[in-house]
Amino acid sequence: MSPRRRRPHLVFPDASELEEPLLDVQDLRTYFHTARGVVKANDGVSFTLNRGKTLGVVGESGSGKTVLTRSIMGLLPNIQLERSGSVRFAGHELTSLTAHQLRDVWGTQMAVIFQDPMTALNPVVRVDRQLTESLRIRLGLDRRAAHDTAIALLGSVGIPAPEQRMRNYPHELSGGMRQRVMIAIALACGPKLVLADEPTTGLDVTLQAQILDLLASLQRERSMGMILVTHDLGVVANRADDIAVMYAGRIVEQAPTKDLFSHTRMPYTEALLRSIPRLADPSHTRLRAIPGRPPDLASLPDGCPFAPRCPYAQDRCLTDDPPPRTAGAGHLFRCWFPVGSPEGEDALARNVAAGVPAALAFTGALAGAAISVTTVSVTATAVVTGSLAPDASLVPPAVPLVVPPVVPPVVSPGPAEGANGDATAGES
Ligand SMILES: Nc1ncnc2c1ncn2[C@@H]1O[C@H](COP(=O)(O)OP(=O)(O)OP(=O)(O)O)[C@@H](O)[C@H]1O
Ligand code: SF4
Ligand SMILES: [Mg+2]
Description:
The chain has helices at residues 65-73, 99-102, 117-120, 127-139, 143-156, 162-165, 175-187, 205-222, 233-236, 257-262, 267-274, 315-319, 342-354, 357-363, 366-369, 373-384, and strands at residues 23-34, 37-49, 54-58, 81-89, 92-93, 110-113, 193-197, 225-230, 242-247, 250-256, 325-326, 332-333. The radius of gyration is 24 Å and the shape is globular. The chain contains 16 helices and twelve strands. By secondary structure, it is α/β, with parallel strands linked by helices.
């Protein structure tokens, strides 16, 4: 029998020697064939990311953010999956690599910080082994060196008394600590790219800020590229170089962060921006949630997928899918009636005048119109668009939202409690 031949390991250039972007994703499509039909979770996603830079990926639940990170990494099971397009990372086309070759990429070249550390960490394995395993397997360190490196890593992510924490199981740690352990595991083998998928879900705002600041400083130190996934534009506002806004499996607007905030073009992005709570708002200010629901990715409507919820929507939006357009360097969007353009302003004004619920909700005009909004929308949409069907989910609740009064926290002399209810000794 012939001896089994080992494939040569992939060779990756040092990130500083790269002459192309660290990550170049072009027309990535990730479809799931299900009993309900084809779920188009990513439908033609394209972007590039350079080393040391952060791309914020933002969108509502179900917009395809997690599938995007997994599709980039090649982490999705092949069953009922259809994937096409190109994912070039550090000079290699990842979509044509075998599972064996991808193992040379995971951990050492790119790593993921998962949405939920409690499910991503193995509950029956101590922190020690979860950290040292990849150091030993991927970097070939011996037991002693892996142990010492793991302790140093826990220290570098701000975990006090790391030797003691090494002996803990995940459930013995607070939410903040678990997230720090996840970050330490992700960074253990010195990846060039980190995909952080909602890395602060479930943590309170103070811990959120600490974890995100920690990630940012580790990224700077190591000149890593980072994709920071979140449903909250506020989280990436001052942490990302560029922002990609996802809706229904596509990037609907992408721009350098400052540009996205100052020259928003997409009505969906504008609606997301308006849903961010602001410190300057008076207390009891009602948050402006986006009315309606995102579309079912297994049966997308014709035209623009945001049309049923869009305050600017016109007839054309219901039939013609808007192609990507540019608005200055690095700024792309998909809309027929962009925010800030004369045609956008006209469209919004027409919809407000006609009483289209999405437009009234957006402009805050609903307070006076709420009582008769259903009637108004039926007649008005017929006049203005002829076909904009009133969507029951857009009709606001008749009863105003009751905001509970702010109760000052009770300060107890006991040990500090973490956001997740468990003691966070040393959590900073
Ligand atoms: N294995 C799968 N089979 C079928 N559909 C899937 C599969 N994985 C994800 N989806 C669908 O793909 C769509 C995008 O899911 P994804 O998890 O990427 O959303 P998300 O933007 O990360 O949402 P969230 O903010 O809630 O995490 C959803 O409609 C989801 O139901
Ligand atoms: S104006 Fe039309 S094309 Fe633009 S986001 Fe709204 S529905 Fe889509
Ligand atoms: Mg997700």
